[in-house]
Amino acid sequence: MNGLATLVRLALRRNRWFYAAWILGMAAVVPATAAAYETIVGGLATTGALDLLAENPTMRAMLGPPYDLTSPGPFTVWRVGTFMATVAGIMAILGVVRVTRADEEEGRTELLRSGVVGRHAPLTAAVVVGLLACAVLGLLVGVSMVAVGEPVVGSVAYGLGSALVPAVLVGVGAVAAQVTSSARAARGLGLAVLGAAYLLRAVADASEEGSVVRGLAWLSPVEWMALVHPYDGERWWVLLLPAALTVLLVAAAFALEGRRDHGAGLWAVRPGRDRATPALLSVGGLVWRLQRGSLVGWFVGLAVFALGMGSLSGSFDTMLERIPRLEMMLRRLGQGADTLVDAFFVAMLGIVAVLAGVLAVQLWQRLAVEEHRGHAELILATAVPRTRLATAYLLLAAVGSTVLFAAFGALLGLPETLAQGDLGPMLGSLRGALVLVPGALLVLGLAVLLHGWAPRLSWIVWVVVGWSLFMVWVGSILGLPDWLVRLTPWEVLPALPVEEMDWTPVLAITGAALALMAMGLWGYRRRDLRLP
Length: 532
Fold this sequence. Notes:
Blueprint: H1 4-35, H2 37-40, H3 44-47, H4 49-54, H5 57-63, H6 72-105, H7 108-113, H8 121-147, H9 152-179, H10 183-206, H11 212-215, H12 224-227, H13 240-257, H14 283-313, H15 316-320, H16 324-333, H17 340-364, H18 366-373, H19 375-380, H20 386-420, H21 424-434, H22 437-453, H23 460-475, H24 482-485, H25 503-526
Helix pairs in contact: 1-6, 1-8, 5-10, 6-8, 6-9, 6-10, 8-9, 9-10, 9-13, 14-17, 14-20, 16-17, 17-20, 17-21, 17-22, 17-23, 20-21, 20-22, 20-25, 22-23, 22-25
Transmembrane segments: 17-37, 77-100, 121-149, 155-176, 188-204, 236-256, 295-316, 343-364, 392-412, 432-452, 459-483, 503-524
Keywords: Membrane, Transmembrane, Transmembrane helix
Protein name: Exporter of polyketide antibiotics
């Protein structure tokens, strides 16, 4: 296969920071959770109190099947294993699509194939680099667990599972790149497959023991790492499932590549309308048309998560009456709330508030993608000013993230409202969501500022978001200094309904966000466009 080594080196060179950020972020969470086992659990495991929590269907749907919570290793597998396998799957899909369909769409693959390069060399390079990234992740997970004192055999099983499960998604991404005709469609198809696998796992794990539905968990690749049972009588044969499926998917991707034309996908692109709809006659309508798929996907995901988490709140009294330490931990996550329901709502809103910032930045940075591809230049060649184009993306990012986060807050309190027959819980969680919106707007303002003045430094905003997500997810549980945990755009905002409403930080953060947006738009108006 001519040119394979060169293409592998090129793919590593162009995507090294992409994979490094994902791998290091995931690899840091696993040993941190294991090291904080005593802080998180204390004496709960020996009393069987954690088993009571793990038997809750919603908790099983969230975290997967627990099999031994009396030691740090298996507890870590239950607490973060399935979640991290899913996140690693996202990394695998996005990484493979970047090197295959995205490069083909932008013309890079055609340039490479004009040289002495085998027909399947670009796809092979993408698969090799994706599998290498999965292997590095598995190695770091296994080594880090040994470093914190966990058994070597269980750590090897954990590391292999953490590598082989995302390897399956490497194959999914490779197949999606052959079936679809655009990078965006390939990402959507791959992530839809991953989402379906996660949903199947959640439904199966939440069902009754011994039921037919419970057995469906074996059909979900994201469940296979947990089914290996690291640290608890490892079932090594389960690792053959992801290995075999990876081989089949990669082989299918090569077979499909040989049956399609360059630049096309097996799914034919439907012809568009002869004339544009009235909505597409404005910049705002075009931006909405480009982004509506992402917004719908985010809404469905957040709605399902909100209703699932909201249904868990009604069982707190029964579930935690024997777990005073866990109750204390939940109150700490909920800013010291008097009621467990309020503490739970505050904790959930704090996590999803960061995701609202992720959504806002993602919607805004679509402008950078359109610039890079030359589409923005075509629009600006008409009578459309730069500020109008940028403002259209900015408004959709700000309004879209705000509306979706507000909907999450309302849906989070809906199950409790239906149970009590009172609008109080739903309105309270809605207010709690709205008061955290300025944090997402501040992150969005930083993204606008960087894009307007220093577009090459746009990655900084993802560092801020990643740090905030880490702090809200495990920062307070790990017992880190309070000043360090509070170094996020959201921590200065009041945590309703636990704390009293304080308009000073809300208005200050909002003002700072608007100032950053204005400065960013000014810079975007003055600088040169990025060439495609």
